[in-house]
Write a structure and sequence with these properties.
The complex is a heterodimer of chains A (522) and B (407). Helix content of chain A is 24%, strand content 22%. Chain A is α/β, with parallel strands linked by helices. Chain A folds into 2 domains: 218 residues, 3-Layer(aba) Sandwich (Glutaconate Coenzyme A-transferase), CATH 3.40.1080.10; 236 residues, 3-Layer(aba) Sandwich (Glutaconate Coenzyme A-transferase). In chain A, the strands form 7 sheets. Chain A has a 10-stranded mixed sheet with strand order 5-14-13-10-6-7-8-9-29-30. A 9-stranded mixed sheet of chain A has the order 18-17-16-15-19-22-26-27-28. Chain A has a 3-stranded mixed sheet with strand order 21-20-25. In chain A, helix 2 links the parallel strand 6 and strand 7. In chain A, helix 8 packs across helix 9. Chain B is an alpha/beta fold. In chain B, helix 2 runs antiparallel to helix 4, helix 11 packs across helix 12 and helix 13 packs across helix 14. The longest helix of chain B is centred in the C-terminal third of the chain and has 19 residues. The radius of gyration of chain B is 24 Å and the shape is elongated. The mean pLDDT of chain B is 93. Classes of the chains: A alpha/beta (522), B alpha/beta (407).
């Protein structure tokens, strides 16, 4: 079991390690308070002289490409998660590494899914030292139990770009599974049997990794157009039979929730936005992939048609509902980070106004602005929210790590941030005195919407004023907490050991909170 | 249904989809004290609270030696207490009841003419569906002990429904319970009447005798508990006999405030099937509407059983309203808005109603005995109907409460 000798207290009052996996770490200092000095990380200079003169970078197998890339002990290997639960590549890489006897690798995915719980055996046998990215489901449970050798690092999508760009994470080998590619390494996600739309999460890997391997099951003659990934960054190209399971990558149809309670929450959220006059001509919005978020778009659409309002842009996760709004002229542009269904992929392929984006343009905090701050309203979820509006998206109330951060932290810079959540889930109160893990500081969270009341952050006097006579059930966050406790009772806190198992990074690379080992029950 | 010679009993649900519920088994033992094995998804948060509730209920019923296994999926305290009591009372005879506190929000009675356009049916043994029902703002919530509860779950459902009447926030909806068919349904009343219910639905009602049986039992229970709160009745007509005796049933007692028709059973009873057009039930529906209007009570139409087909539901509601019905049952929360909105008056109806009500108010202020609009005389029932239209329009958000000020 790892020992963390030195803990410091950050500006949220959280005890965090001052060193993560042997490297010094900076404690969170407050939103916008840490301004780094210095230069971005510089990738190795390449020369055309070192590459095939005919531009053909094909090699025979994934294993050959890894050997050619110089796979070795302790290296950082990156993958992207555009194939979601249908990914067939990440697990194979570590099969090969384990077979070749390599140890102490660091896996740096843009997110993990349940299909990746296969990798637990490699975390156990030492092939993988730790994960920097997200640890979902079984991997999260494994981490929470303190069984991972190194300390897990959780970052937002924007934070992942920032960490590589700033040189905090050095990718030795990037593996970019690509639905379509040519022998030069140009690649995209919009064609091919495993099409997934955007490949934006792999952009930073292509730009900064020492070695870049593109792997595809749909090799086309040069040029592969559009080149979401530019072959000029790519070292090797591998053709395999199958890179992903299409039905698990993209659902043929995304359906909005049938749960009447969730639909009610979505409708209430849309009503709030209407009453607060956020839905107005030329506005912009983002909603995620969850059941409630999808439904919010549908209710937005109703309001927009009724009032004759058009949005300038919507940020995806795109899906058929957003696409229908684009095609019916209710939205001028979809700026898409990942694509959730086949309609989204089709639209991105066919419609110039359905634009793919990356964590660099959308989310990176160490840049000269990003798109997330331009969005008028974003609707997100949370596992817990406290009476200071601080919110958690990674751990559950029992202390277990179960989710990644995704783009959630980055979206908090939108002009109005709404968290739409049930007041309690079964007997688990969502509004509490204190969240198990802070992922987002309350000062950035404007509104909490539950089925039994809406709490507006006292900092947002404008929203309080605008919705004063709306008839909406506006209450204080403390009242929400009391209502939740009236149903469920006052919850006990989970019991942790004093061993950190993972850290939550803020968008600027500082450490916002620590995830502690859950004390095994007797 | 009750086997007091058992030594092991169980209660609750533990299916894959069951949430906010628990399943427990209880074995009475001769010695060894109380042993509780708890598996719970909320153990880290409420493990201690759950154990102390289990012990409290066992102690309340004087049980000092028992083995209890609890599989909890986030049951709220009133649910878990009901499950424990249901298990205990299969094993021991006791008149005691372990009741949750009655929440302030549920301490209201309802009036005879209260609006009952939408009433949401909830299975009486499925707590997961109950918790948020109120947020969908139906006029009434029906906790169903009859068709929505499996035969082997009927006993434990009574405890859950009883506890829900005390502890579950109905958010202003009228608290209704559908008891079982006569005569068995009379036993349900013991669990319901002293516990804060507003209205009882009597299924498969075929004569005034059924209504009288229910009222006699209600009176006896209220007398025993010293209660005098109003308890309204809504008989449901579900057979040829019921249809033919509709007027008798509607007039059977003072506290019958509405009568409903149940078309699935009715269609089966007359040997046919329910269709979208509803030709087979046209007579029955008209008969029920007319009986209700003759008796001065509300006429409530059958539920629409396709929960996905909202266009079909809307058509059905408009037809129902045209026949003279005042409301309809809902079997899914998403039906509530469609039913509410389409029973609500349309613009032309509101416009006419405003004219009538204005004419009436002006005539009254001027001391005229007779109200006229243009060259037409307006009778009292016309004014009453117009006022009702206005009330509905206000409730549906189609008309401002202070419409006379703003006109």
């Amino acid at each position: 079991m790892k020992k963390i000798d030195k803990l410091v207290t950050n500006s949220m009052g959280k005890r965090v390690p001052s060193e993560v996996n042997g490297k010094p770490a900076i404690p969170f200092r407050g939103v916008g308070k840490y301004i780094p000095k210095g230069q971005n990380f510089g990738a190795t200079v390449a020369s055309c002289a070192s590459f095939p003169t005919d531009g053909n970078k094909l090699v025979g197998s994934l294993k050959e490409s890894l050997v050619n890339a110089g796979l070795n002990n302790g290296m950082t290997i990156s993958t992207h998660h555009h194939f979601r639960n249908g990914d067939l590549i990440a697990n194979q890489i570590f099969d090969i590494a384990a077979e070749m006897g390599f140890k102490d690798l660091i896996w740096f995915p843009s997110a993990s899914f349940e299909c990746n719980s296969y990798l637990i055996k490699y975390l156990e046998d030492g092939t993988i030292h730790h994960i920097e990215g997200s640890m979902n489901g079984s991997l999260g449970r494994f981490t929470s139990e303190g069984r991972m050798k190194g300390l897990g690092v959780l970052r937002s999508h924007g934070g992942r770009y920032q960490s590589v760009q700033d040189g905090e994470v050095h990718i030795d080998i990037a593996i970019i599974a690509s639905p379509t590619a040519d022998f030069f390494g140009n690649a995209n996600g919009i064609d091919g049997p495993a099409s997934c739309g955007s490949l934006g999460f792999a952009l930073v890997d292509s730009q900064y990794a020492d070695k870049v391997i593109v792997i595809t099951d749909n090799l086309v003659p040069f040029p592969c157009v559009p080149w979401q990934i530019q072959g000029n960054y790519v070292d090797f190209v591998v053709k395999v039979d199958k890179i992903g399971i299409p039905e698990k990558i993209i659902s043929g149809t995304t359906e909005i929730t049938k749960s009447p309670d969730r639909l009610y929450l979505a409708e209430l959220t849309a009503r709030f936005c209407e009453e607060a006059r956020i839905i107005k001509d030329g506005f912009s919005f983002q909603s995620g992939a969850g059941g409630i978020s999808l439904a919010v778009s549908v209710y937005f659409k109703e309001i927009m048609i009724r009032q004759g309002i058009k949005a300038r842009f919507a940020r995806g996760g795109s899906n058929k509902y957003l696409v229908s709004m684009l095609e019916e002229g209710l939205i001028d542009y979809i700026i898409d980070g990942q694509t959730f269904d086949l309609e989204g992929v089709r639209s991105m392929r066919e419609n110039q106004n359905h634009v793919w984006s990356s964590p660099f343009t959308s989310y990176n905090y160490h840049s000269k602005g990003n798109f997330a701050q331009l969005v008028d309203v974003v609707i997100l979820g949370a596992t817990e929210i406290d009476v200071n509006f601080n919110a958690n998206v990674v751990t559950h109330s029992d202390g277990h790590l179960l989710h990644g951060i995704g783009g959630w932290q980055n979206c908090l810079f939108s002009k109005t941030v709404i968290l739409t959540v049930p007041l309690f889930r079964d007997r688990i109160p969502v509004i509490k005195d204190e969240v198990t893990t802070v992922c987002g500081p309350g000062e950035l969270i404007d509104v909490v919407i539950t089925e039994r009341g809406i709490a507006i952050n006292p900092l947002r006097k404008d929203l309080i004023e605008k919705t004063k006579n709306s008839g909406l059930p506006i209450v204080s966050i403390h009242e929400l907490k009391e209502m939740a406790e009236k149903f469920c009772g006052k919850p006990a806190s989970p019991i942790f050991t004093n061993v950190p198992v993972a850290v939550v990074k803020w968008v600027d690379g500082t450490i916002l909170d620590t995830i502690w080992q859950v004390k095994p029950s007797e | 249904m009750r086997m007091v010679n058992k030594s092991i009993a169980s209660a609750g649900n533990k299916g894959e989809k069951d949430r906010s519920d628990c399943f427990l088994s209880l074995e009475l033992t001769g010695s060894g004290g109380i042993k509780i094995d708890l598996i719970s998804k909320v153990k880290a948060l409420y493990g201690e609270t759950i154990l102390s509730l289990c012990k409290e209920v066992l102690h309340f019923f004087g049980i000092e030696n028992a083995i209890m296994n609890v599989e909890d999926k986030g049951a709220l305290p009133f649910v878990m207490a009901g499950r424990i009591e249901a298990a205990i009372k299969q094993l021991i005879e006791s008149d005691k009841e372990f009741l949750p506190e009655t929440i302030v929000e549920n301490q209201f009675q309802t009036v005879r003419d209260r609006q009952r356009i939408t009433r949401l049916y909830l299975p009486g043994n499925t707590p997961g569906l109950m918790l948020n029902a109120g947020i969908h703002t139906p006029d009434g919530i029906i906790l169903d002990l009859e068709d929505a509860v499996g035969i082997n779950k009927k006993y434990e459902a009574r405890f859950l429904v009883r506890n829900a009447l005390h502890a579950l926030n109905f958010m202003g909806a009228e608290r209704m319970v559908r008891i079982n068919q006569m005569p068995g349904g009379l036993d349900d009343l013991d669990f319901i009447i002293p516990h804060n219910v507003n209205l009882i639905l009597i299924p498969k009602c075929e004569s005034s005798t059924h209504v009288h049986l229910v009222n006699d039992k209600i009176n006896a229970i209220q007398k025993r508990f010293g209660l005098a709160n109003p308890i309204w009745l809504m008989p449901i007509i579900e057979s040829a006999m019921g249809v033919l005796k509709a007027l008798e049933i509607a007039q059977a007692a003072e506290n019958v405030v509405a009568m409903a028709i149940g078309l699935e059973d009715y269609a089966a009873d007359i040997g046919t099937q329910r269709t979208m057009e509803g030709t087979e039930s046209f007579f029955a529906r008209c008969q029920v509407v007319n009986a209700c209007k003759a008796a001065g009570i509300q006429a409530i139409d059958s539920v629409f059983s396709d929960i996905v087909d909202m266009a079909g539901l809307k058509e059905n509601v408009l037809h129902s309203k045209a026949l003279g019905f005042d409301g309809m049952g809902c079997i899914h929360p998403l039906q509530i808005k469609v039913i509410q909105d389409n029973f609500a008056p349309n613009e032309m109806e509101i416009k006419n109603a405003k004219l009538v009500v204005n004419a009436f108010i002006e005539a009254t202020m001027n001391g005229y005995g007779v109200v006229s609009l243009g060259n037409k005389m307006i009778d009292a029932p016309v004014v009453k109907r117009a006022q009702r239209t206005i009330d509905l329009a206000v409730k549906s958000g189609m008309l401002d409460e202070n419409w006379r000020v703003f006109q």
